[in-house]
Design brief:
Shape: rod-shaped
Helix content: over 70%
Order of helices and strands: H
Distance between the termini: 88 Å
InterPro entries: SlyX (IPR007236)
Protein name: SlyX family protein
Pfam families: SlyX (PF04102)
Number of strands: 0
Keywords: Coiled coil
Number of helices: 1
Radius of gyration: 30 Å
Strand content: under 5%
Length: 74
């Protein structure tokens, strides 16, 4: 009877370990995917920053007063 109980406890522990291993793998996959998303967003933000700087530089070279003037609808 004690051997049956021990075998059942071992089987339970093995099932829990397998579940935890699967959970860890799914969390790892999710983390890797999120990291790729973060890297992509960082590249996009850097590109947008460069574009904004270029627009500001082009605008200041053309007409310095353009940024001060309010649009006609104000």
């Amino acid at each position: 009877m004690n051997d049956d109980r021990t075998s059942a406890e071992i089987a339970t522990l093995q099932a829990e370990i397998a579940f935890q291993g699967d959970s860890v793998q799914r969390l790892n996959d999710a983390l890797a995917s999120q990291q790729q998303d973060i890297l992509m967003l960082q590249r996009q933000v850097a590109l947008l920053g460069e574009q904004l700087r270029a627009l500001r530089e082009n605008g200041s070279h053309r007409d310095g007063a353009a940024e001060v003037e309010k649009p006609p609808h104000y």
